[in-house]
Amino acid sequence: MPDDMPTILLYLGAAWLAGSLIGLERSFHGRPAGFRTHALVCVASAMLMLVTTHQWQWLDSSIPEATLRTDPTRMAQGIMTGIGFLGAGVIFKEGLTVHGLTTAASIWITSALGILFGVGFLLPAVVATVATLLTLSIFRWVEDLLPSEYYADHQLSYLIDAVPEEEQVRELLKQHGCLVKTMRYRLMEHGSVFQYHMVLQTHDRRNLVKLAEYLRHHQSNVLEFQLAPAGGE
């Protein structure tokens, strides 16, 4: 067994542990790429870097070591390019909401951590792992405390002979703390149904809940409504 085999195993083990910890956080929040994905990404990145930095151990022993010209940065570039396709696979858009951006970013940084472990930069790799875990956990709580604006995709459908004026619709939404940012109109069902389609803005997500409750219980002339809050990870 080569003398540096324990060191290689240490790097691979550390990469596996770091990827697993990040993956556990993602799995806990029900994300599509979780424990196994992050662990495999981190170990694979570390393994590929080890292959590059230990070329003389798997090439023909008759080749003089002095003739080898290793360039680990090329392997790192290839890893980060390839991981982009994996990250893109977890991102999808639904209405105003984009899902998977944080998970894609976590896969990307997990791969970068694997590269650090693979070349033996243990201290920066450990520090970056801790920083990543704090960002994914504590920053979620910080985001909830920060004041922010919320958006929602909103549709209101009426029978053609019971359509309220646009100003009445805007006033109703204003009473529930919602501002209309864009407004579109649609005539459906061979002219028997009219639809207002809008994007709402509010400073309190609870206003959207109250609006939905009001429309459900107090607006008998509403044929159909949809209220889809925007948001991601």
Automatic annotation (TrEMBL):
Q: Which InterPro entries did the record assign?
A: MgtC/SapB/SrpB/YhiD_fam (IPR003416), MgtC_SapB_SrpB_YhiD_N (IPR049177)
> Membrane topology per the record?
Multi-pass membrane protein
Q: Write out the annotated subcellular location.
A: Cell inner membrane; Cell membrane
Stretches that traverse the bilayer: 33-53, 74-92, 112-139
| Pfam families assigned to the protein according to its UniProt record, in alphabetical order | MgtC
Q: Which GO terms describe its cellular component?
A: plasma membrane
Recorded coiled-coil stretches: none
Q: Which UniProt keywords apply?
A: Cell inner membrane, Cell membrane, Membrane, Transmembrane, Transmembrane helix
Q: Which domain of life is it from?
A: Bacteria
Q: Which residues form the MgtC/SapB/SrpB/YhiD N-terminal domain?
A: 12-144
Keyword flag Hydrolase: no
First-listed, main subcellular location of the protein, grouped into a coarse class: membrane
Query: What family does the database annotate?
Result: Belongs to the MgtC/SapB family.
What protein am I looking at?
Protein MgtC
